[in-house]
Here is the input.
Amino acid sequence: MSEIVRSRDPDVLETCDIIVDVHGKYDGIRYFDHHQRFFNETFSENFRTKLSSCGLIFKHFGKRIISERLALDINHPHVDILYVKLYESFLEALDANDNGISAYPQNIKPLFKAQLDLSSLVANFNPRWNQPSDDTVLFNLFLKASDFIGSIFLDQLDYYGKSWIVARELILEAFKKRFEYDSEGRIVVFDEFLPWKSHLAQIEHEFNAIGQILYVLYTDGKDWRVHAVPVAPDSFTSRKNLPEKWRGLRDEILSLECNIQDCIFVHAR
Here is the structure.
């Protein structure tokens, strides 16, 4: 376990192997500060958010962290996918907060107060204004905050590396087989439920097939379900709804209307 030193003393900092968030230097090897006047480093050309020291560390060491945590060769294709996914889904928001970048334009008024975001939860580890504190207290609170955010990061890495990426591979396989079910490739069929919406949108983009999939079918082991694909993963608007005359019908009435046996239900929307 490496020793952690908290200091702004230049002489103390120069005894350290890696210097993070202080010292006014960045070289991607030993120095990882982002407070320099002309610092404008981003994660990649596909991102606009300026990195904080958090993002800098992940940019340079993220693939190694993913590789070691998941026991994957660092050149495994999953490492590259997870490297980008973890940054955009978890770390970019921390970089933005540290650099004072809002998630939306300032002229947009929020509908409610969201005071329990990840950055604010970490900030709550700071001593209260009326709480006695010294270097020892501050250091212990820093370690608690580090353990807190570190455990969340590892949970996210494990989720994306052991669940999310597995679903992606199954969805990709089904996507490639779509012409077996429809000559125009508009239907994707899964053997089980999968969290498919964001994956399918990304896969469509990668294969230059944006908007082509209209329906997703999967079985729960007993029955089959049909989902109309939304225009975007977080949208309630479908690319092509099921026929209006089917909606809200159940059982035998539905089966008679659509001429398909053993139907159960179609949502009214």
